[in-house]
């Protein structure tokens, strides 16, 4: 998982408990959003969190040229 690798500073082989923690945390957040606001809330949060990352990614791509 990317979150797990980022949390360890780039180490690829992370402890199992840490992978379970991040997977559980993401699952709990998704379930909470589905229960609180349904699919539209989950979609809104997905777009809202992906948009800033997309802008940073585009700037990084521009920097390669």
From TrEMBL:
Native source species: Klebsiella pneumoniae
GO CC term (a single one)? plasma membrane
- Give the main location: membrane
What topology does it adopt in the membrane?
Answer: Multi-pass membrane protein
Q: Which ranges does the record mark as transmembrane? A: 20-38, 45-64
The text of the family note is: Belongs to the BCCT transporter (TC 2.A.15) family.
Q: What is this protein called?
A: Secondary glycine betaine transporter BetU
User: Does the keyword Transmembrane helix feature in the UniProt annotation?
Assistant: yes
Entry keyword annotation includes Membrane: yes
Subcellular locations according to the entry:
Cell membrane
Keywords annotated in UniProt: Cell membrane, Membrane, Plasmid, Transmembrane, Transmembrane helix, Transport
InterPro entries on file: BCCT_transptr
Q: A single GO molecular function, which one?
A: transmembrane transporter activity
């Amino acid at each position: 998982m990317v979150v797990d690798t980022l949390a360890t500073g780039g180490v690829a082989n992370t402890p199992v408990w840490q992978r379970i923690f991040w997977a559980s945390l993401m699952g709990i957040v998704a379930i909470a959003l589905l229960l609180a606001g349904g699919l539209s809330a989950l979609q809104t949060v997905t777009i809202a969190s992906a948009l800033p990352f997309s802008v940073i990614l585009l700037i990084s791509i521009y920097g390669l040229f």
